[in-house]
Amino acid sequence: MNQTHKPMNDNNIQLNVLLVEDEAILALAEKRNLESYGYSVLWASSGEDAIELFRNDPSINIILMDINLGNGILGTEAAKIILNHKDIPLIFVSSHTDKEVVTKTEGITSYGYVVKSSTMTVLDASIKMALKLFSANQKLKESEEMFMKAFQFCPTPMAIHDISNRNVFMDCNPAFIAITGYKKEEILGKTALELGLYSHPDERAKLLNQFQEQGFVKNFKNTFRTKTGKELIRFLSLSKILISNKEHIFSVQTESPIEYFDI
After folding, report:
1. Do residues 17 and 45 lie in contact, with contact meaning Cβ atoms separated by under 8 Å?
2. What share of the chain is helix, strand, coil (3-state, %, to 5)?
3. I want to staple 72 with a disulfide (CB 3.0 to 4.6 A). Which of 17, 46, 87, 109 is the partner?
């Protein structure tokens, strides 16, 4: 069934699909179906051709990748090479549903697995969902990159803790390294307690209890000890953040209380 509405990307440009299929008759039929739904379609008959086409055509928006591609490399291998070159939404399309074949796609960042016998309506919906998920993931990556740049250059001591692993330090900024006196490699993988950063360990217990009850802490006054044994009165704030869809604790140390505003 022909549709007058053509799928567009965020820049209102017709979406270009790279179809990777080694069987010519199936490829031509699928190409025709995709074009009837408004997509522009490039066809590659092998994994090697797909890699070459992708590298030479930056207009490709999404890839439909068969897994078994005849005598050439597997679709999974082609997918790995393509994704190492550049992030792009990729959907595996296969006539196989057995575990052995599906398992080959594990560990590869893909946005779906569609069986070839599925209707064009299913494939079209899968493409649209993959594009939406990819766009959301790209925005999340951009947001995380902006946060990490601000984190690194901020003059205020900050750290990120792995909430799933004893709250060990996962990262810290130069300002935090400077105030503690420890090298970064001495900090990462350790807890504040293991580093002796609390002059009074009971303060840490009180801080964590407050964090567990509220989900955040604002301006917790504590006595901070540096590597040389110098003690400083600091105000510690904790909040939960998501990094790569995993929950972490974000901590900020200040010399005086921060004024927070509810938004």
Report:
1. no
2. 40, 25, 35
3. 46
The pLDDT tens digits for 207-249 are: 999 999 999 999 999 999 999 999 999 999 999 998 877 999 9
Residue 128 has pLDDT above 60, yes or no: yes
User: Could you tell me the two tokens for 165?
Assistant: 């692993």
- 195 CB neighbour count, 10 Å cutoff: 16
Asked whether the whole model's pTM tops 0.85, one would answer no
Bridge partners, residue 252, by sequence? 158, 237
Please give the sequence-ordered ranges of beta strands (E in DSSP) within the chain, or none if there are none: 16-20, 40-44, 62-66, 90-94, 113-115, 158-162, 168-172, 216-225, 231-243, 246-254
**What type of residue is 101?**
V
DSSP string, 214-249: HSEEEEEEEEEE-TT--EEEEEEEEEEEEETTEEEE
Cα gap 133→42, rounded to integer Å: 22
- Condensed to tens digits (0 to 9), the pLDDT of residues 31-88 reads 999 999 999 999 999 999 999 999 999 999 999 999 999 888 999 999 999 999 999 9
Give all strands (DSSP E) within 68-225, no chain letters.
Answer: 90-94, 113-115, 158-162, 168-172, 216-225
Which residues are paired to 236 by β-bridges?
220, 253
Distance between terminal CA atoms of the chain?
49
